[in-house]
Amino acid sequence: MAKSADPNFVAEIRRLASNSQRVMITRTAQFDLVARHLTKDEICQVIIDWIDSGERIKPTTLHSFPGLEGQQAFELKPRIQGIVFYIKVALVEWQQPGEYLLLISAHPDH
């Protein structure tokens, strides 16, 4: 079975997702949400539900995101509106006063 993210990172993702004020969305992800008539709060709830159900969160590395190259990110593939979605998030400025969860992608999985 493929490796799952460290439980401490998963807990931090959930903690930040539970406060939508601590979730920032890339322009690309914003377009993804608008295209599917989804809100930031709805995606945050999907992330929380995915984590609470014990589903796998895959660690990955950001390769082409300006300013965050080489940083760890996390992928999950929940079902939304009957479609499997690809969601990618990253912990930014983690454990700093301005920490937030960055929603990088939120689109149907191709």
List keywords for this structure.
110 residues, alpha+beta, six-stranded mixed beta sheet, 6 strands, 30% strand
Structure characterization notes:
The protein is of the alpha+beta class and 110 residues long. The chain has a domain at 55-96. It has three helices and six strands; from the N terminus they run H-E-H-H-E-E-E-E-E. The protein has helices spanning 7-17, 27-35, 40-52, and strands spanning 23-25, 58-61, 72-76, 79-80, 83-92, 100-108. Strands 1, 2, 3, 4, 5 and 6 form a six-stranded mixed sheet that branches. Helix 1 (7-17) packs antiparallel against helix 3 (40-52). The protein is globular and about 35 Å long. The two termini are 21 Å apart.
Helix content: 25-40%
Q: Mean pLDDT score, rounded?
A: 92
Distance between the termini: 21 Å
Low-confidence segments: none
Q: Radius of gyration in whole Å, from Cα?
A: 13 Å
As a percent range, the share of strand residues is 25-35%
Concise description?
The chain has helices spanning 7-17, 27-35, 40-52; strands at 23-25, 58-61, 72-76, 79-80, 83-92, 100-108. It has 110 residues and is of the alpha+beta class.
Reconstruct the topology from this structure:
Layout: H1 7-17, E1 23-25, H2 27-35, H3 40-52, E2 58-61, E3 72-76, E4 79-80, E5 83-92, E6 100-108
Parallel strand pairs: 1-6
Antiparallel strand pairs: 2-3, 3-5, 4-5, 5-6
Helix pairs in contact: 1-3
